[in-house]
Amino acid sequence: MKKTLTVFLLALMVVTAVFANGSQEASGTEARTLVFIPKTTSSQFWVNIYNGTEAAAEELGYNKVKFQGPSSGADVTGQINIFNDVVTSRPDGILIAVTDMKSLKKPIEAAIAAGVPVVTVNSGIESDLVLAHVATDNYSAGAMAADALAEMIGETGTVIDIGVDPASETGRQRENGFRDRMTASYPKIKVLPVQYACGEVSKAMNITSDLLTGNPEVVGIYSAQDAGGTGAAQVLKQRNLKDSVKIVSFDSSPDEFALFLEGNLDAMVVQDPFNQGYKGVMAMDKVLNGEISASEFIETPVKIITKDNVGEKSNYDLLASDANIKKMIEDAGIVIE
Fold first, then answer.
1. End-to-end alpha-carbon separation of the chain, Å?
2. What pTM did the predictor assign?
3. Is the domain of 37 the same as that of 65?
4. Mean pLDDT (whole number) for 60-64
5. Residue 258 and residue 190 share a domain
6. Mean pLDDT to the nearest integer, 247-262
7. Residue 24 belongs to a domain
């Protein structure tokens, strides 16, 4: 009887050890699941960020990165609801591009307090609880856009300003950088009050049409987001104004790039969305492994791309991270230097 009991206990110990070892292996990176919540799933820009998260996750051996977000960039409530639902599912970590920094602050801090790490990508909140924020230096990028547009219009004239939306941290920084630089360096340029497109091309078209009609002296347009630039450029194309009104716009969606190739949009402030997603997952990995103890800002650079420099290798590499734009460049016969 004692021998039988001893054999049973030994077998039980072996089985327990096997399950414990399997549990340890399952807790490694190969079992970790992350979620990326963009401002909207309907823009190629956010898809490019997601592609970067997938590349980093695969490199690190993570299970997968889920892509969940609202269909409209103006749907703040939708993003909050999706975020809360994702928190309830208890993923290993959440990466989010915050649409409304005030509305998302409390849910994000609550998630972190509940043990779900959050890394913000592209647009974040003001909180020391978020240990990593991966983004462009949007204030400096806005100032760069001001310099580019001022040069194009001879440092004088009236300019339309199309913003992201009033609650966007990203938009606010780009707005401040642009307007501060214009005020400080270009006194002969009048910037009209900002109008918000909220990520909608149709809204940007209406804003541009109305402002051009009411201000026929306009010689330049600044947009802090690709939807605004796309909408404004479409209006210039319809009115045949590309030679008399210059546009500088953030980002480089395929629709926007097509207008750029046609000459209806003059310069793009191009971020590196793929790298933002890639670095976001790399930062999350450090958070999960306890390698980041205080809030960090991880900057991804931007470039001003014009017809004169679009063929530069570094600019091409940045644009070609979007497969659709890469094909457009090839089809246009642009020679890469």
1. 84
2. 0.80
3. yes
4. 92
5. yes
6. 95
7. no
